[in-house]
Amino acid sequence: MTMPKSMKAAILVEQRKPLVVTEVELPQTLDVGQVLVKVHYSGICGSQLGEIDGVKGPDKFLPHLLGHEASGTVVDIGPGVKHVQRGNKVVLHWRKGAGIDATPAKYRWAGQTVNAGFVTTFSEYTIVAESRVTVIPPDSDLQVAALFGCAVTTGFGVVTNNAKVRIGDSVVVFGAGGVGLNIVQGAALAGAYPIIAVDLYDNKLELARAMGATHLINSRSVDARQGILDIAGAGGVDAFIDNTGQPAIIEMGYQLTKPQGRVTLVGVPKAGNNINIYSLYLHFGKGLSGSHGGEAVPQEDIPRYHQLYRAGRIKLREIITNVYELVEINTAIQKMRDGSQAGRCLVRMDNETPS
């Protein structure tokens, strides 16, 4: 097939600045293991806000494309690709799945190279590694499908693989964004009680209640530490899951978990923002660990979770609260920052796909 010569895309040109929405030139051939995908809907994750803000330090790959969860249709495949075919509906994800880890594509804009990783999704088309696409049924809801790229797989993976939540465990979920809501929902599926959702914004907390949170704490108006103890008891909680990356919250979680409790870090602190803990308790069974996308295995987990959604066992459409056009992506990002955007917002990349 004929490769599209150009596409609209949102580029990170400078850290801590709005994305530049512009026309970008695509490579005209696919390398071994590369897959050309027409993107339908992309989610915006807190990780992208972190990239824009430079939480991990200076970015040596600027300018580059962003985005790591989306739904799309395979347009073409490069040599060696076996796990997807032209015309397949797919989920694009950042966790490595089945297939080739292809060389990341390089695009062109304004006479310079625009870098990309194994997967990027803030564009009308994208060239990704085979290992970052998983086939879904052709009649899948393409808005919901985008959430399987990160929000769902990370959230449920955190519950089962990292925090290892058991029936009757008490759980705190600090931060009720797109991933946090699915952590709440996963904890509810696992039979946890109580499930305490903590956030700064009531609109996010109300969504957490709809996902299965049994108790809500607005940490802007209530002391979160005391609120958690009042609900869970002086003995503390079994699992504390932090989505904020704030050292003070991580330290509080470490203090509030039981002697055999688990603290799971989903959010990433800014470079240089270290935590300060008394490590003795780690020798006697307390756990403190970071999550890497819930340790999800996309080719196994996405079909399982998709089946749960189709059976009505999990809520995902309720998490999608806004759909923006690509030209509105900076508005969407700002609404995430100021708390007015609850749940997961999507960006529609393909004007031919109904909103």
Topology record:
Elements: E1 6-12, E2 20-25, E3 34-43, H1 46-53, E4 64-65, E5 69-77, E6 89-93, E7 106-109, E8 112-115, E9 125-129, E10 133-136, H2 142-147, H3 151-162, E11 171-174, H4 178-189, E12 195-199, H5 202-211, E13 215-218, H6 224-232, E14 237-242, H7 247-256, E15 257-265, E16 287-290, H8 298-310, E17 320-325, H9 329-338, E18 344-348
Parallel strand pairs: 11-12, 11-14, 12-13, 14-15, 15-16, 17-18
Antiparallel strand pairs: 1-2, 1-4, 3-5, 3-9, 3-18, 5-6, 6-10, 7-8
Please explain how this structure is put together:
This protein has 9 helices and 18 strands. Helix 3 packs across helix 4. The two termini are 27 Å apart. With 355 residues, the chain is an alpha/beta fold. The strands form 4 sheets. Strands 3, 5, 6, 9, 10, 17 and 18 form a 7-stranded mixed beta sheet that branches. Helix 9 links the parallel strand 17 and strand 18.
State Rg: 20 Å
Spell the H/E element sequence: EEEHEEEEEEEHHEHEHEHEHEEHEHE
Proportion in helices: 25-40%
- Average predicted confidence as pLDDT: 96
Structural shape: globular
Total helices: the number is: 9
Report how far the terminal alpha carbons are from each other. 27 Å
- Weakly predicted, low-confidence segments: none
Task: Using brief descriptors, characterize the structure shown.
single chain, globular, six-stranded parallel sheet, alpha/beta, 18 strands, 355 residues, seven-stranded mixed sheet
